[in-house]
Design brief:
The complex is a heterodimer of chains A (318) and B (253). Chain A has 318 residues and is α/β, with parallel strands linked by helices. The chains are: A alpha/beta (318), B alpha/beta (253).
Chain lengths: 318, 253
């Protein structure tokens, strides 16, 4: 049995797609797990997207907590004697997968960017050394646990004629000595950099928060309208909310065009945008690392370059 | 309050060289350091000790030269170090099992502090995995921690949500880089650290029969094919050339 779980529906659909492929090769069944309230419509949707079964673990838990969710999944894995567990790689999923791996003494690979069978063994690839290399990791003992970030795999086409069994069970999780006091939506500006086709990003080269309008203006004429940034702008200075943050611990993006202005090109930032189709860098330091990762670059003061570039793009496009 | 800080010696990825032909990283002779976020964990431990008293033990699984890295954390303010030898073959299962056994040997503790992830591998697996092995609560991605006498509260960054979690002791907490600014030890502190004890334990003395569940079969290079066309003359001219190039690439539509 192969188990799929994420609290994010979109991620679950992507995992189901890869899961079906691996399940077929191993001649195993694919089970999607839902934890929380019973949701018949969601269960049917998971079947339409590739699940052979859906296991609904009904609990009264109000919000995600790794300890309880781990004990629920641990029960399901043991009951179904599962060989592989694929978990969506958001923050909840990562801490869930890791704790589960500890409980089961299982192998676990976090943030896999590719997953396949090699000599019948599950094999996972992941970025290491801040995006400087890819490690190929092979499981040599079961169960196997892997987490997969969003957008690594494409979901299958929905097929409502697919049949599958929906198993409902009440599971009382182990009690834990921690409790959640408050859950608050993060302050965001509603930006989705991961889906953007054109992104203009700013970094430490900007002197004031107000100057970010230079990036806004360029993004607007490019019809990308999406502004990104490097770590200091979101995490340290907090000039932009974290939904703009591109990098290893921020968002990973792959737009058609990525323009980095005033970004030095630390590898942590490169790791977040290296899959972009075309990369443009604007930096006043000709030695800046960012130029090594760029297709096109302009050496110059962004305060002079950006307004001129905005103007020139506007002319070209009209 | 007895606090254990787990720290890892890592390759300094920002100093890492890549072989120009294979694109693979050159690991031999690459500079080593303490993973940055583990220093944030150390700093937080010192703040909690300042408030409640107690003892801070730094725990590392690593090669023998990791002793030098432990000294850095002793200089920052840890009281004692423990270095568990690196087995020849290891994965997260092996490392976290060794950490768990070492923690049991250290004995009484209230809090285990880890960085959210190491800067070389960035899995973030060891903290929660260790909490699972120790069967204690895990409070991950903490951006602020308020330790009181019988409980601790943390503000956590869970991506799209900010979550406040409370736990009794013992507890394992992983911290993010934003939680604090790690102190730089003074020369006096660096000198004094030489007299603080570092216990060296072998992996075999803690547990036997550990074997990796996951094997790294290859480290591949990442091809980064970029045109690297840089305009650096007159700004107006550069802008004009860039816009022409972008138009040819078909992205100005």
């Amino acid at each position: 049995m192969i188990i799929i779980y994420s609290d994010d529906k979109k991620l679950t659909l992507e995992l189901l797609s890869k899961g079906t492929e691996i399940a077929k090769e191993l001649d195993e069944k694919l089970t999607a797990v839902i934890i929380g309230k019973s949701d018949e419509a969601l269960a049917k949707e998971y079947i339409a997207y590739g699940a052979d079964n859906v296991y609904v673990a009904e609990t009264s838990l109000e919000s995600f907590k790794a300890e309880e969710y781990t004990s629920i999944l641990e029960n399901i894995v043991k009951e179904t004697k599962s060989d592989a567990i694929l978990i969506g790689s958001n923050k909840n999923g990562k801490e869930l997968a890791s704790r589960l791996a500890g409980k089961l003494n299982a192998g676990c690979v976090i943030d896999t960017t590719n997953l396949y069978l090699k000599n019948k063994k599950l094999t996972a690839e992941r970025m290491v050394y801040s995006g400087n290399a890819i490690a190929v990791e092979q499981f040599n003992s079961k169960p196997n646990i892997a987490t997969v970030p969003s957008k690594v795999f494409d979901p299958l086409k929905r097929d409502d004629s697919r049949k599958g069994e929906i198993i409902k069970k009440k599971i009382e999780p182990e009690k834990s000595n921690s409790k959640i006091l408050k859950v608050q939506e993060m302050k965001t500006e509603g930006v989705n950099v991961e889906d953007a086709e054109i992104i203009v990003s700013c970094g430490r080269g900007f002197k004031n928060k107000d100057d970010i309008k230079l990036v806004d203006e360029l993004a607007n004429v490019l019809k990308g309208k999406t502004v990104g940034c490097s770590r200091p702008i979101a995490a340290d200075l907090k000039w932009l909310s974290e939904d703009h943050w591109i990098g290893l611990s921020g968002h990973k993006v792959k737009p058609k065009l990525y323009i980095a202005a005033g970004i030095s090109g630390q590898i942590q930032h490169i790791a977040g945008m290296r899959d972009s189709n075309i990369i443009v860098a604007i930096n006043k330091d000709p030695e800046a690392l960012i130029f090594k990762s760029a297709d096109y670059g302009i050496v110059g003061d962004l305060y002079e370059v950006l307004p001129k570039l905005t103007h020139a793009v506007k002319e070209k496009m009209s | 309050m007895n606090i254990i800080v787990c720290a890892k010696q890592v390759v300094d990825a920002s100093e890492m060289k890549v072989d120009p032909s294979t694109k693979k990283p050159i690991l031999q002779g690459a500079p080593q350091k303490i993973s940055d976020i583990d220093k944030n964990a150390m700093e937080e431990a010192i703040k909690i000790k300042d408030k409640h008293g107690g003892k801070i033990t730094v725990l590392t699984v690593g090669p023998s030269d990791a002793k030098e890295r432990i000294k850095e954390l002793l200089a920052m303010g840890a009281d004692e170090g423990v270095l568990v030898s690196h087995p020849e073959k290891y994965d997260y299962h092996v490392i976290s099992s060794l950490l768990a056994e070492a923690i049991k040997k250290i004995g009484q503790y209230d809090m285990v502090l880890c960085g959210e992830a190491s800067t070389d591998m960035f899995s973030g697996q060891v903290g929660p995995r260790l909490a699972g092995l120790l069967q204690i609560p895990q409070v991950t991605y903490a951006q602020s921690v308020n330790a009181e006498k019988d409980k601790v509260t943390a503000e956590r960054n869970m991506g799209d949500k900010a979550v406040t979690t409370e736990s009794t002791y013992p507890v394992l907490i992983t911290v993010t880089k934003e939680i604090n600014e790690p102190r730089l030890p003074s020369l006096m502190q660096i000198l004094a650290a030489a007299n603080k004890p570092i216990n060296e334990w072998t992996a075999e003395s803690l547990t036997s029969g550990l074997r990796p569940m996951v094997e790294t079969i290859e480290i591949k290079g990442v091809p980064m094919e970029r045109k690297n066309i840089v305009y650096q003359d007159d700004i107006d001219e550069s802008v004009g050339k860039l816009v022409d190039s972008l138009a040819k690439e078909g992205v100005l539509r």
